[in-house]
UniProtKB/TrEMBL annotation, chain B:
It comes from the Bacteria. The keyword Nucleus does not apply. This is Nitrite reductase small subunit NirD. The lineage of its organism: Bacteria, Bacillati, Actinomycetota, Actinomycetes, Kitasatosporales. InterPro entries: NirD, Rieske-like_NirD, Rieske_2Fe-2S, Rieske_2Fe-2S_sf. Residues 14-109 form the Rieske domain. Keywords: 2Fe-2S, Iron, Iron-sulfur, Metal-binding, Nitrate assimilation, Oxidoreductase. The keyword Phosphoprotein does not apply.
Amino acid sequence: MTTPTIVLVGHGMVGQRFLEALADRGVTERARIVVLCEEPRPAYDRVQLTSYFSGKTPDDLSMVEAGFMEKHGIELYVGDPAESVDREARTVTARSGRVVAYDTLVLATGSYPFVPPVPGKDARGCFVYRTIEDLLAIEEYAKTATTGAVVGGGLLGLEAAGALKGLGLDTHVVEFAPRLMPVQVDEGGGAALLRTIERMGLTVHTGTGTQEVVTADGAVTGMRLSDGSELATDMVVFSAGVRPRDQLARDCGLTVGERGGIAVDELCRTSDPAVFAIGECALASDGRVYGLVAPGYEMAQTVAATIAEEEAGNGFTGADMSTKLKLLGVDVASFGDAHGTAEGCLDVVYSDSRSGVYKKLVISGDGVLLGGVLVGDAEQYGLLRPLTGTVPPVSPEQLVLPAGAGAPVALGPSALPDDAVICSCHNVTKHAIGQCSSLPEVKKCTKAGTGCGSCVKTIEKLLPAATDKGLCGCFSYTRSELYEIARTLRLTSFAALLDSHGRDTAKGGEGCEVCKPTVGSILASLNNGYILDGEQASLQDTNDHFLANMQRNGSYSVVPRIPGGEITPDKLIVIGEVARDFGLYTKITGGQRIDLFGARVDQLPSIWTRLVDAGFESGHAYGKALRTVKSCVGQTWCRYGVQDSVKMAIQLELRYRGLRAPHKLKSAVSGCARECAEAQSKDFGIIATANGWNLYVGGNGGATPRHADLLAQDLSDAELVRLIDRFLMFYIRTADRLERTSTWLERLEGGLDHLKDVVVHDSLGLCGELEALMAAHVADYRDEWAETLDDPERLRRFVSFVNAPGAPDPSVRFVPERDQIKPDLTILTIGNLEGATSR
Amino acid sequence: MTTLELSLSPDSWMAVCEEARLTPGRGVAALLPDGRQAAVFRDRSGRTYAIDNRDPFTGAQVLSRGLVGSADGRPFVASPLLKQRFDLETGRCLDDDEVAVTVYPVRTK
Ligand code: SRM
Ligand SMILES: Cc1cc2nc3c(=O)[nH]c(=O)nc-3n(C[C@H](O)[C@H](O)[C@H](O)COP(=O)(O)OP(=O)(O)OC[C@H]3O[C@@H](n4cnc5c(N)ncnc54)[C@H](O)[C@@H]3O)c2cc1C
Ligand code: SF4
Ligand code: FES
């Protein structure tokens, strides 16, 4: 028997899902699979396209796991679209001239953006919004533009408008229909959306068509609108809907729908039984073209199953068009019969134009929930969508009223029926989720939650509440309990702690990647010793182990301490010289110091020898320890300053350097209330007053920003230091693993008042002990790097290879970028580095 | 002095280092003659293991720099980059059934 060939045309989201479904069913082992991909890169997450503008790289968006094609023997031809199909001969011809014979052909060509045939539509400055290349072009052009207009106020149009706004353009949205998002939301919802979007500074023109793109010298200068007015703009993004890409199918005589789309039956077969069509290019048997990814995924599964001859008959008969999005930061969701088209149906509406919240439920005469629209607050989407088609357990009014108004709704996901679909991206039911016990397990076993992510909150509510507060699989105690055990029993070894206080199943074992560094940190906080000797060495995370931060290619970064951000020209020159001599990438960090990237593990000692000789010491960028105490320039120079903020910042940074804690610690000192050092976003922040210092605690930047709380006012230098000593030691003693002071303070019973009682009024009589612990830390501090360099035994670990101490690691290579280096990632995609050479 | 050896093919063994170079609970990297890299570990009870050094999730040659742990009595190493765990005896990834790394036989002599 010869191996059959399956040819896939189009490597978009649905195409990739189809390949995964083939691999899951073992088809890749018995068939040759050829993929023709038009775009210059393999499949990527188009749904998340806009996240490119918030920092995702094209690589981050990729949907193809490294090694997937190789592992399954799939031939992928990137940048080589199919140009014609000969159905008689069963061949596909690609642009490069490549001719591939097929037994089965699958078309997954997606859609193209529809551009209305207005004059000027091809001028320079006109764009569409569909591919990574489109976004790159928009980004480039926007650099010289000040105003942008989006034609189309639908889902994608608003996303494009958000992107233009984010690029700093004065942004207009022109929508032909009388409201925004006409397909998804009704009039009331459109109005709520409009208000919120206008409040963000976008200009919306609804009920207005585009008549002409006005140009000068071939470039856009404006748009003429249907009301006769002219809108000045430097660029235009068309987002007026999509059309199925069915040209290839038309050309080879396959049946296509009157309004486009490759006609398929329930099994996604086209009019030629050897050819299938899936995703946005297909006209499904229910007469619809689906512009969402979830129905496309279902089609991909159907065709893969049919090809695998497993479950033919379980076809695609239509799908749910429910969506939940965050557009420009506004929650918008619609589900089921959102427009209330069913006969005799009734609406229940809640609308609050002040807060921009609009909710509507569509209910049948006999109380069945048929669908709905949520704008501004879509919290309940995860619950309402699966309830669609049932009579909800509480009255519809209770479902739309905000909490606190009317009867509180005690309705959680537990009220859902077992067959309710919780994850619509992957069609996973409540029952299937109930088989798992944790979110990672749900993701692994059912894929639920790995698509758009909107169902994750509901899934979490369905999982058994974590009753086991234990640190990890090895300990049933929390971090703070372990701290107390180690402190009171004076334990100094991880093995002793594990064997005496570990779970029975873990005693005598190795511990794990969670408890080892946690206990390592506790022991370091209590004993202040060098952290890399004896057993302690085996507990530290890799960063602490090498006293440097590991980067994505296995190289390390080097961060010398620059207390308060103050540095002499001579020291600055040393850093420059070291970076130059070792070829390191150099960047000013967000913490007022300098990071040197790209050191191989075997270079760390020579780099640090130079730095230590020049008077630098470890900046602990790698440790759960004090990072920086930022500082403004303060009274010495600044006309507003009322205290010497630099001096205080340096004093504090030197006092707390090297202090091991449950998480990293950051601080800042500002010389006056103008707060140039951003002290209120720090774990402990200090702001100068005419009478001394105000101390703020529990601030955080990062993922969940929190403003710090004022702990005490007008402190003298000595009072300030003493209070910080107590605060930090109390935190170290009672916080959980990886709990910043902000989350710790939020969790602390009694909150800020309790904290004040303990550290200011000494209500627990602990303060003497806390101060003594800090005094011991300060007295025992020694620079880890200097200590390491002094000891040949400690230096032995800094080699790339234990059996070839001088040899550099050939996988750590760099390529140039903007006059410096960056990791060469291509080399990491090669499994076997045979023959690879060093830089 | 005990030497740790690793096997690339059924009856050829190469010396990696003295066993005492290995801190219990940590690993070291060894360069193999064909350019590949092995990550060699020793656990608390003195048993030694070797797997491929390449982290299949990131492509970086870093598994030797991960932390050794045990779950259900079986030893594993957690990648220092994105923390996926690999069974030291079978090479199987404990967080993704589809992924595994090569295991090399080791002995001390
Ligand atoms: C280098 C730097 C970015 C830069 O180029 O500016 C940086 C780089 C890293 N940050 Fe950061 N952060 C840097 C300033 C910040 C800041 C700004 C600041 O400190 O003023 C923040 C927000 C402020 C805050 O922490 O409250 C910040 C919030 C984070 C977070 C989120 C923390 C949170 O509580 O949400 C992480 C993740 C974590 O620690 O778990 C993180 C983690 C990291 C890590 C350690 C990630 C890692 O494990 O590889 C990066 C390692 C850098 C390296 O290899 O050297 N970084 N990071 C900055 C170093 C400052 C310094 O001199 O030490
Ligand atoms: C900005 C944006 C936001 C979106 N947000 C959402 C959302 O929140 N939720 C949602 O469900 N959906 C969303 N979508 C829609 C979603 O991206 C599509 O439904 C999905 O990508 C369809 O997958 P597909 O594989 O059918 O088509 P595509 O992903 O478009 O892939 C088709 C591929 O085929 C290629 N191709 C075409 N012709 C040929 C040829 N002749 N030879 C070779 N290759 C060819 C194309 O270049 C393309 O790469 C969004 C889309 C965009 C653009
Ligand atoms: S915080 Fe006050 S003293 Fe410091 S630089 Fe800003 S204005 Fe000057
Ligand atoms: S609904 Fe999108 S990931 Fe579950």
